Automatic annotation (TrEMBL):
Every HTH myb-type domain range: 9-61, 62-116
Protein name, UniProt field: Transcription factor MYB28
Pfam families membership: Myb_DNA-binding
Superkingdom: Eukaryota
PANTHER family, sorted: MYB FAMILY TRANSCRIPTION FACTOR, TRANSCRIPTION FACTOR MYB17
The keyword S-adenosyl-L-methionine appears for this protein: no
InterPro entries registered for this protein in UniProt: Homeodomain-like_sf, Myb_dom, Myb_TF_plants, SANT/Myb
Location(s), subcellular: Nucleus
DNA sequence: AAGTGTTTCAACCGCGACCAC
DNA sequence: TGTGGTCGCGGTTGAAACACT
């Protein structure tokens, strides 16, 4: 029993979109919103299936999409988030506003995965490959792998802390401590407040993670890495990062009273973990590969 | 210049989750 | 509770662009 096709395929166009089709789609959505994707093509007069329209809009035509090459900061963030979230591109994309999951997936598959491989790091586990025929690696052999081992260690520690916390507290549903932890936090009103403030101030820090990480920057234990050239863009102003802390550490205003004390406590814990997370430790080794 | 191999990325496909009935 | 419709996600594909010989 096969699954019904998502749409009637007869007479529907496939393949690359024509500029005229783009124009029709954009104009329609601007006027009516996308509504039901399934019925959109018919209403807009497009010979495409709804799925194709949705994909074209979300990955290419949406006005808030940032196109062009990824910055080093963005690449670092993708690698870091991949270490936490794995191949959950949509979750990763949620941390990189204006970038699409498809774009990030392509970046990973074409650039970042290879870069990690060339450094001797398993792109799936973010762990150094064990030496041939030997036991599990004991001491990473290159600065890059040493750094990644540190990162992995920090990640595991954070996970352990989350697991531990989950044993002692009842998390509200929106903050269940699993791997979506940070994502939910970012999508909560805490993240909302931060985004608002961040928009007003600067575009230097793009997410709570980059903000938090800049405040948590420490000298990397590996001097070879720490000593390598770091782009000026890495030096995110401390004041901006403090602004995130101040917003998130202060009680929320009364505009949204749905957040109970219990959930506030959980948010505080989550925030602290977030702020402690050593994400923006020097990853300039990426530039050298 | 032509042929061949490699890389990139937009688009497709199938599956699972969610929701309304 | 079961069923069907819809949406979103992640894996994969294939044409175009690019690099190399």
């Amino acid at each position: 029993m096969g699954r019904k096709p998502c749409c009637e395929k007869k007479g529907l166009k496939k393949g690359p979109w024509e500029p005229e089709e783009d124009e029709i789609l954009v104009n329609y959505i601007k006027q009516h919103g996308h509504g039901s994707w399934r019925s959109l093509p018919k209403l807009a007069g497009l010979l495409r299936c709804g799925k194709s329209c949705r994909l074209r809009w979300t990955n290419y035509l949406r006005p808030d999409i940032k196109r062009g090459p990824f910055t080093l900061e963005e690449e670092k963030l993708v690698i870091q988030l991949h270490g936490i979230l794995g191949n959950r591109w949509a979750a990763i994309a949620a941390q990189l506003p204006r970038r699409t999951d498809n774009e990030i997936k392509n970046l990973w598959n074409t650039h970042l995965r290879k870069r990690l491989l060339c450094m001797g790091i398993d792109p799936q586990t973010h762990k150094p490959f064990p030496p041939c025929g030997g036991p599990t690696v004991a001491a990473p052999s290159s600065p890059g792998t040493r750094h990644m081992a540190q990162w992995e260690s920090a990640r595991l520690e954070a996970e352990a802390r989350l697991s531990k916390d989950s044993l002692h507290s009842n998390y509200p549903p929106f903050l269940k401590p699993d791997s979506d932890y940070f994502l939910r936090l970012w999508n909560s009103e805490v993240g909302e407040s931060f985004r608002k403030l961040n928009t007003e101030h600067s575009t230097a820090c793009r997410s709570p993670i980059s903000q938090a990480s800049s405040s948590a920057v420490t000298v990397d234990a590996c001097p070879n890495i720490a000593g390598s050239s770091t782009p000026a863009s890495n030096q995110i102003e401390e004041t901006e990062c403090k602004s995130f802390k101040s917003v998130t550490e202060e009680p929320m205003d009364g505009s949204d009273s749905s957040c109970s004390n219990e959930s506030e406590d959980s948010s505080d814990t989550a925030l602290q973990l977030l702020l402690d997370f050593p994400i923006n430790n020097d990853m300039s080794f990426l530039e050298n590969c």
